[in-house]
Amino acid sequence: MHEVAVIGGDGIGPEIIATGRKVLDAAGERYGFEIGWTDFDIGADRYLKTGELVSEQELDALSSYPAIYFGAIGDDRVTPGILEKGILLTLRFAFDQYVNLRPVKMLAGVETPLAGKGPKDIDFLVVRENTEDFYVGIGSRFTGKEHKQLEVVRNLYSVKFGLDVESDAEEIAYQIGVLTREGSRRVIEYAFDASRKRRKKVTSVDKANVLSDVYGLWRDVFRDVAAQNQDITTEFNYVDAITMWFVKNPEWFDVVVTPNMFGDIITDLGAMIQGGLGLAPGGNINPHGTSMFEPIHGSAPKYKGQNVANPFATIWAGAMLLDHLGEEEAGAAIVKGIEASISKGVVTRDMGGSASTSAVGDWVADWIRRSK
Ligand code: IPM
Ligand code: MN
Asked: pLDDT at position 164, please?
């Protein structure tokens, strides 16, 4: 029995997760395992009722699960940032899920906006660092003379640029990105290990030509790890350039390892080239702790409760969850089931079909039960 915690969350989250669960249960029937699901009532509704985001007790309870199946977070009634930081990022950080694994793989039968490219060209893995960089939440915002911290910024500005901030700037905001050698090393090592099971090439993403302190450290660590893995081909790409290459030559990439914020940005682009956000799954992984699997897309509040949202990203995230639990055969079958569903035209309207969220899930579940 695999015990899995469930956070449906906001908007379309609960319905896509319910659909994903049906598919995972079917995979369990077919491959001989059971999943014990435990729901956690975490999200905007509860926050608006009680003011609670995630409690210490919940973190404690969640920490005993190997995996969390996560829908989506985000609600129009709540100021942007509160739920994202207070729930999603809190969970990623609390469980030290330092790898954000995002496959960019175009499935058979899907359309990509990239002319002349197909499934054999678009098949790489983005390994996004998930606990450092500009996501550490160190920053502040204040006006002129009111704030003691101005001293810090004034010194910085006058030393670096000869600017008198007090007279020049009416309001100041800053945010600090932090990288550590250990934090960079563990995720870069994960990327090298992942590429050894694939096509043995790792691409590093950074902006070491401008943000040379943080990403200079990143590059040093990447070089160290590369030196210890000489069977793997390596290259450096600046983040601006890699967006261009994703579009022009996606077939060059095997494993792409990236600091947190650049990883956030380039995986939305990755999702588009693989066929759309409706098809892009992700795993927040702590190889030794509680990991969390979710679609990359958000909660799409305007489609809430309509049974029209595309469930493929969530179903695929469920396949990654099963891989993580050691049920690789079942995970692979689920991805095949998604492809079968696409090839039969059993898809939601964002992909040109007319099937409902739950109908797509039922079809894939049924396909898996009957698969050889
Ligand atoms: C993602 C999202 C999150 C992120 C937000 C919602 C905090 O955009 O998972 O890519 O920035 O990581
Ligand atoms: Mn994002």
From this structure: 63
Ligand 1 atom with least separation from CA of 282 = 9
pTM of the complete model: 0.95
Contacts of 330 (CB under 8 A, 6+ apart): 24, 27, 28, 30, 31, 33, 319, 322
- CA 268 to ligand 2 center in whole angstroms: 6
209 burial via Cβ count (<10 Å: 0-12, 13-18, 19+): exposed
Ligand 1 binding pocket includes 88 (Cβ within 6 Å): yes
Q: Give which of 302, 283, 294, 318 is closest to 350, Cα–Cα.
A: 302
For 257-301, what is each residue's pLDDT tens digit?
999 999 999 999 999 999 999 999 999 999 999 999 999 999 999
Say how far apart CA 187 and CA 191 lie, in whole Å: 6
For residue 84 and ligand 1, the question of a CB distance below 6 A is answered with yes
d(CA 131, CA 236): 22
